[in-house]
Amino acid sequence: MERVGLLGTGIVGRTLAARLAELGVDVVVGARSAESSSLEAFADLDVRTGSFADAAAHADLVVNATNGVNSTAVLESIGAEALAGKTVVDLSNELVPREGGGFPVPTATAESSVGRRLQEAFPETYVVKSLNTMNCAVMADPSIVPGDHVVFLSGDDAGAKDRVRELLATFGWRPEQMVDLGGIETASATEMMMSVWMAVTIARGHDAPRFNWAVNAP
What we know:
This protein is of the alpha/beta class and 218 residues long. It contains eight helices and ten strands.
């Protein structure tokens, strides 16, 4: 696996960093500042830490594990020149608070998604949307869900998708589980799936076993 720059220090970033370190991947985790207290959560992992720019500079493959509300600003802080020619796998969903509390609300529509906005804002960067339709534990280790469940990919560049497939394979995803939806415009579809994911999670209960989506056909 290539060198990975992981943007984001929340539960998704922590889960993926731990798994990649376990698998022997060279990882730099980035936060807004190299001195951010959020990086203390990674002290027990075999990874390096730094700023968002440090993580991107290190990386052959950049993983965006930030909240989609902030993703464009995070990449802007790194700069278009620093990201030119790099593949960014975008895991994010844009979530805003729900009135009255509870699960936040996804904002994606048929015409708007985080993945699409990132590609438009950084045309020299290869953005691939993937892994945003499941819990982060399943992202990092698909074996915890039985059966032939799937992971989707959306992006305009075939070579970038191949690099993301390599990352997915490192986590344990099999080729037949990787479903290519087409160009980055299809990121809207997977980001809108987050509404269904949240409804299912609420209906099953937070303590229920992890789940994922399957595409079954004769």
